[in-house]
Design brief:
With 142 residues, the protein is of the alpha+beta class. Helices cover 40% and strands 18% of the residues. It has four helices and eight strands; from the N terminus they run ααβββαβββββα. About 8% of the residues have low confidence.
């Protein structure tokens, strides 16, 4: 995995040669084809943060493909102590009529935070809505 210094340097100076050099000094480089920070043998990678760039059609298609490949929704965060009284917190997947395996999240050796659970569970419903909104906005004449 990238060391914290590489990630911070690259994000602070994205697009500048000095950031790429700093990343390379730690044994990583930027892959020209994928625009991902990768180690020298391409076995590990971290997406480059590109917040100022417009999403390409290819990137939107990749996001849609990941969404479509995920376990069907809806997903709902079931918090232990709030939604049920025993066991662990989890993400319930699928509708009551078509349930799928529950998802359990950890952060190191502890359960993930409520905020992380909520974010991940809601992403299953939020991402398709955001994709649809992007498509609608791109089709709307300016």
């Amino acid at each position: 995995m990238l060391c914290r210094r590489c990630v911070e340097c690259y994000r602070d100076h994205a697009g500048h040669r000095r950031a790429i050099v700093a990343v390379e000094l730690h044994g990583f480089r930027v892959c020209g084809s994928s625009q991902r920070v990768v180690d020298t043998d391409h076995s590990q990678s971290l997406p480059v943060e590109r917040s100022n760039e417009i999403l390409s059609e290819k990137e939107l298609a990749e996001i849609r493909a990941r969404y479509e490949a995920a376990t069907p929704g809806p997903w709902r965060y079931m918090a232990e102590g709030r939604d049920h009284m025993s066991g662990d917190s989890f993400i319930r997947t699928g509708s009551p009529e078509d349930r799928h395996d529950d998802l359990f999240l950890t952060a190191g050796n502890q359960p993930a935070s409520d905020a992380d659970y909520e974010f991940i569970a809601n992403a299953r419903q939020d991402i398709p809505r955001l994709l649809t909104e992007i498509e609608r906005l791109r089709e709307t004449p300016r």
